[in-house]
Write a structure and sequence with these properties.
The complex is a heterodimer. Chain A is an all-beta fold. Helix content of chain A is 0%, strand content 50%. Chain A is built from no helices and 11 strands. In chain A, strands 2, 4, 5, 6, 9, 10 and 11 form a 7-stranded mixed β-sheet that branches. A 4-stranded antiparallel β-sheet of chain A has the order 1-3-8-7, with no helix packed on it. In chain A, strand 5 and strand 6 form a beta hairpin. Chain A is globular, with a radius of gyration of 13 Å. Chain A starts with a strand and ends with a strand. By secondary structure, chain B is mostly beta strands. Chain B is 0% helix and 58% strand. Chain B has no helices and 11 strands. In chain B, the strands form 2 sheets. In chain B, strands 2, 4, 5, 9, 10 and 11 form a 6-stranded mixed β-sheet that branches. Chain B has a 5-stranded antiparallel β-sheet with strand order 1-3-8-7-6, with no helix packed on it. Chain B is globular and about 45 Å long. The chains are: A mainly beta, B mainly beta. At the A-B interface, strand 4, strand 5, strand 9 and strand 10 of A face strand 4, strand 5, strand 9 and strand 10 of B.
Chain lengths: 112, 116
């Protein structure tokens, strides 16, 4: 049982490039989330999904897009990378809106 | 807007000591509260989840309490061990019309070091 799997683990982008951060879970969870964590700060919610085909914005969605075509996958898209998007990105999932969150190990992204 | 604050930012204790980590939040209309542990370079691991109707939850040497009216939660760790060294994060699920959609507002965390 792999839990929540994120790829890649590390990535360096140039300003203006685009990329997709992959997230997959094998626990059949309906709820999935993307958070970013900046040094010395708590996590901030970027986007979330309550089921396949349903997504909504979190606290800091600008510069990002998501899709949820299957229960298992929740990719995060950066279209025009900016230095302000340098961060560690965490994907998480939960069975319900009142269940513990399960996190992946994160993707460390640097934009230069 | 919900704000979550954790005090202290860092704590260093000798092995065997009992300790308390503090979390405060500004909006008492919460859905639930979770405590997480984060090891360096890793994701977060859920430790305890307290429903808004509960006062405390226990798991092994960990006990988390919740006082909604005062906007506070504490995480008590008994008989600390070097393996408990990690960052501990508190996160609040805000009540939005009877649900939270699982969305959490996180504190900045407390870095705990337990030395032998």
């Amino acid at each position: 049982n792999a839990g929540v799997t994120q790829t890649p683990k590390f990535r360096i982008l140039k300003i203006g490039q685009s990329m997709t951060l992959q997230c997959a879970q094998d626990m059949n969870h309906n709820y999935m989330y993307w958070y970013r964590q900046d040094p010395g700060m708590g996590l901030k919610l970027i986007y979330y999904s309550v089921g396949a085909g349903i997504t909504d914005k979190g606290e800091v969605p600008n510069g990002y897009n998501v899709s949820r075509s299957t229960t298992e996958d929740f990719p995060l898209r950066l279209e025009l990378a900016a230095p302000s998007q340098t961060s560690v990105y965490f994907c998480a999932s939960s069975y319900s809106n009142n269940s513990p969150l399960h996190f992946g190990n994160g993707t460390r992204l640097t934009v230069t | 807007k919900q704000e979550v604050t954790q005090i202290p930012a860092a704590l260093s204790v000798p092995e065997g000591e009992n300790l308390v980590l503090n979390c405060s939040f500004t909006d008492s209309a919460i859905y639930n509260l979770q405590w997480f542990r984060q090891d360096p370079g890793k994701g977060l691991t859920s430790l305890l989840l307290i429903q808004s109707s509960q006062r405390e939850q226990t798991s092994g040497r960990l006990n988390a309490s919740l006082d909604k009216s005062s906007g506070r939660s504490t995480l008590y760790i008994a008989a600390s061990q070097p393996g408990d060294s990690a960052t501990y994060l508190c996160a609040v699920g805000n009540n939005a019309g009877g649900t939270s959609y699982g969305k959490l507002t996180f504190g900045q965390g407390t870095i705990l070091t337990v030395h032998p």
